[in-house]
Amino acid sequence: MNIGVFLSAADLGEQYTEPAREFGKLIGAGGHTLVWGGSEAGLMKVVADSVQEAGGRLVGVSVEFLQHKARKDADEMVVTADLAARKAELLRRSDAVVVMVGGMGTLDEATEILELKKHGLHAKPVVLLNSAGFYDGLELQLRRMDAEGFLPLPLSQLVHFAQDGADALAYIEEQL
């Protein structure tokens, strides 16, 4: 299975690096492929290292202006012209999507993936991996949108909120 993971390329504390490491091990040990932003920095490096160490494959999707930060030993590396093409390629190559902790870019990716799913433009499982309660506020907002009628289908059909990598992977495997 190709598991798309959106997450930060920033160097962050252990409350975020450990869940990334654990999820990467689960992906690799399960014989799955990580499809990710291709960076050799921060959490992107942590998850890729763990996948590779556990025997999984790496498919990176970088962008021209960040190509100098791309991982050299990925099994495959695609370079797109811009961020919009990168998001589309990441989604195209993924059987499921897991959104881990990240900044503005990750939030942009998450909302676009959910918007496309809301409109029926893909039906892939989407998981928000809520490491250290990082997405508590976003979950609250999405639940309010659902309760107040802003979503055309139930939130549970759009996204699964997982507290750890094992829950995220179990949900994906159940859906596919």
Short description:
The protein is of the alpha/beta class and 176 residues long. It is 46% helix and 18% strand. The protein has one domain: Rossmann fold.
Query: How widely separated are the two ends?
Result: 9 Å
Radius of gyration: 15 Å
Subunit arrangement of the protein: single chain
- Annotation, overall tally of beta strands: 7
Main β-sheet, spatial strand arrangement: 4-3-2-1-5-6-7
Specify the CATH architecture: 3-Layer(aba) Sandwich
The largest sheet is: 7 strands, parallel
- The coarse overall form would be globular
Fraction of residues in β-strands: 15-25%
Instruction: State the secondary-structure class.
Output: alpha/beta
Helix-residue proportion = 40-55%
What is the N-to-C order of secondary-structure elements (H for helix, E for strand)?
EHEHEEHEHEHHEH
Q: What's the tally of helices? A: 7
Indicate the mean pLDDT: 96
CATH topology: Rossmann fold
CATH class label: Alpha Beta
| pLDDT < 50 runs, ≥5 residues | none
Query: How many structural domains does the protein architecture include?
Result: 1
